Structures
1.
Amino acid sequence: MKLSFRTVLNCLVLWPLFALGCATVQPQTKPDTQQTSPAGTPNAACDAKQSQLLKEGDQTAVEGSIEKHLAKNFPDHKVSWFMPEELYQKYVVKANAVNFGRCNDTGCYLFAAPTAFMQDKLQKSMQGGKHDAAALGQALGLPAKNFEGPLRLMTLDIGSPPLCVRLPVESDPGVWKCQSAADKDCFKPGGYTSGGVPEVMVINAKVAQTQVVEVP
């Protein structure tokens, strides 16, 4: 579903936003093998591999567990992320992608953060009808180059239907470990980015179930 950015600004309360531009998109190369566990939490759909990584992530969780992390930072179970328009066209549209994220034979891995938080940062970055890449990058603790040019903003409800959601771990595709406390745009365990933004890892985030917004 695609809406104009103006339409989104007119319904922010109904449809919150998020952004994090570190993941690329590949079409899924294997059938979805996730098994659904008893419903009730967004991480109920993790298969055996992801369940083990979920436990690994919980060992470093600032909040103590993925459930507590979600309750504190993702109470509405909504996540979002940015992609530059050029990459969106290349990896989603032209590739006819099934899932968002970096993919391997265990699934597609997507970093995401709270939509409500990112909605606020995006709105504050708008100047003259366009987003300010420097302001947005500074607000998210990421380089401005990640947000230059037109963007696409994706929003996904991770609770309906439940998706496999956990804290990122060092072995995840796309992770670059921070070498010092001053490093930015790198991985720190615990559920927060190096810039202090709450994050989760979403496994096999379906393109067809994601709402997409053009950001000038």
2.
Amino acid sequence: MKISLESKIETERFILIMNIGLMTALKDGSITIEDAENYLYSPYSAKKLEKLGIGKEVITLIYLGCELENVKSIIPHELINSMDDIERKSKELLRLLPKSMLPMKKWID
């Protein structure tokens, strides 16, 4: 499967929606932090998105996701707060982005 998005804003919307979904799945135990790292939360992903010109606020959320394993091992009582923070900030940024123009190209190629 190939995923393609045509604009920076649509890519940012997609990443923010992914953040919200990953945090929901992590909090309810559907996936592990390692799973989330494989999907999105890695320095590799952040660097690729930076090269695409994705906004600094969105990239910062990716890096916060990269730190979840450290939070879990060093200050486990803060893990839920860290996940809630990523989810809350993702929702705030998503609300600020312009809405998608319809009809839009489907993102699954």
